[in-house]
Amino acid sequence: MSTTLTGAPVSPGRAAGVVVTMPAPVPEPPEATTGPSEADDAVSRLGAASRAVQDRLDALAAQATGTAADVLAVTAAMAADPTLASDAERRVRESGATPERAVWDAANALAAQLEPLGPPLSERARDVRDVRDRIVAELTGVRPPGVPSPGHPFVLVAEDLAPADTATLDPEAVVAIVTSGGGPTSHTAILARALGIPAVVAAKGADDLAEGETVVVDGGAGIVLRDPSDAEVEAARSAVRVEREFDGHGRTADGHRVELLANVADPAAAQAAVAAHAEGVGLFRTEFCFLGRDVEPSVEEQVTAYRGVLAAFGGRKVVVRTLDAGADKPLPFVTADDEPNPALGVRGLRTAVAHPEVLDRQLRAIAEAAEAEQADVWVMAPMVATTDEARAFVAACERHGLTRAGAMIEVPAAALRSRWVFEHATFGSIGTNDLTQYAMAADRMLGDLAALSTSWQPAVLELVRATCEGAQAHGRPVGVCGEAAADAVLAPVLVGLGVRSLSMTPRALADVAAVLAEVTFVRCRELAQVVLAQPDADAARSAVRRELADVLHPLGL
Ligand code: PEP
Ligand code: MG
């Protein structure tokens, strides 16, 4: 008999596969020593472990594709570097350290030397620590760190995934993701949607799933089936999603324009967005170019990264968001790691108070990249809370000749005071992920609060309405770039509330466009009134699904 776990549905699609769990972090080895007579044996174990790690990394890099292959190739090169091995050997022979302790200390010493050298060398510190953990894991018999590579397709089960882990996620191998933590707007959820991997987050009981058991995951329904029958496995394996194409021109049934844009984090994602016919980029998350970096990237390096995205879009619109560091996306060169409550801490635009020069250099880099490319570059700041912050940011952009300067509206204070914010900001983009987190006082990373963490909450939609009203008073356009924009059922509601563009993972464009194309603008406005009259999120979602049944059913949504 199969049993069912339920969680938040965050990335549609059905898949069946065996469970592979994320390993726990490799523990620091104790400061034990060995006797002098054991030194030769310790050195030969050390050599064997580092050769095994190199071979495995080489094999993994050869199998992987895209970013995963690049990351693994760099780690493999680091594992083959003799500096680490010879210092570890010296520590075994001179201080009698155990091989695992010797490699731990040697790696930490090497990382500490690399860190002050600036990029690209300082970046290698992270790779050194990764190699350290892999060699220690080999020596002590624990599982190596990072996303496992069992050599066959699998369902990845984790408490949650760190942004750095997700860089090595291979969509060919990971058929589905199930987490016990994380909310519908956590970065795990965003990434799964972007990669088109079916995913269920905040799944109660996911921590009990056993390595190697077969499960069926339905990412659209938020269900994980344990002990599925052969027929259920077969049905999931042969499930095919209806493939639609977006024609590159978003509009309602009566021709009201709604720009449909893409969220991207790097040049590869920009290419995917172009392939999906996105009209432009509504959110370029620049911090993702530099995650895991200990040192601020140089202006030249930033220009190169930004040009990679701008170049993909020719003369079209690209909204570049300045660094949104902090909370679940820490960047050590601007964020503290000891805040008691990081989501309410110094994050986003607030980091510019202590580090105005970092924002200034980023705006310089964006201006240089814009100058060198054809794209129509708009710039916006994350986490704007007050009118004064909006005014200061717009002024900083103007000093760099960036005249299209806007504000993300993701703090309820800015939504409620949008009439004042838009005196300065020339456009707005609503970050519904954080707006929901702050409106509902529900940490977006916490699976237990998934029911609160949805943009269907009428309170969140009231804030969207307030934002649009304030912007209309100054004729400023407002878009949505949070995950709400990728919800094809919510899209007409957002348009009815006054939103003029929707920015989403490229995979969602076709479904959102298909729904909008079937609904008139007047109907969108009626749907907006319907949701605002509902008592809670479930009632709002059900009411719209009922109203739109004639549109959603034929589209299979
Ligand atoms: C948001 O908060 O909705 C948003 C788009 O920003 P991020 O998800 O990167 O915090
Ligand atoms: Mg945000």
What does this entry look like structurally?
It is a single chain. Helices cover 44% and strands 14% of the residues. It is built from 22 helices and 16 strands. With 557 residues, the chain is an alpha/beta fold. Helix 9 links the parallel strand 9 (259-264) and strand 10 (281-285). The chain folds into three domains: 3-23 and 157-238, 3-Layer(bba) Sandwich (Glucose Oxidase, domain 1); 36-140, Enzyme I, Chain A, domain 2 (Orthogonal Bundle); 259-555, TIM Barrel (Alpha-Beta Barrel), CATH 3.20.20.60. The mean pLDDT is 90. It has helices spanning 39-63, 66-80, 82-95, 99-114, 124-140, 163-166, 187-195, 230-238, 267-275, 299-312, 351-354, 356-372, 387-399, 412-416, 418-424, 432-439, 458-472, 491-496, 509-516, 521-532, 537-547, 549-555, and strands spanning 3-6, 8-11, 14-21, 154-158, 174-179, 199-201, 214-218, 223-226, 259-264, 281-285, 317-321, 376-381, 405-409, 428-430, 478-480, 501-504. It binds phosphoenolpyruvate and magnesium ion. Magnesium ion is lined by residues 382, 410, 431, 433-434. Residues 250-519 form the PEP-utilising enzyme C-terminal domain. Residues 154-222 form the PEP-utilising enzyme mobile domain. InterPro entries: PEP-util_enz_mobile_dom (IPR008279), PEP-utilizing_PTS_enzyme (IPR050499), PEP_util_AS (IPR018274), PEP_util_C (IPR000121), Phosphohistidine_dom_sf (IPR036637), PTS_EI (IPR024692), PTS_EI-like (IPR006318), PTS_EIN (IPR008731). Residues 1-43 are annotated as: Disordered.
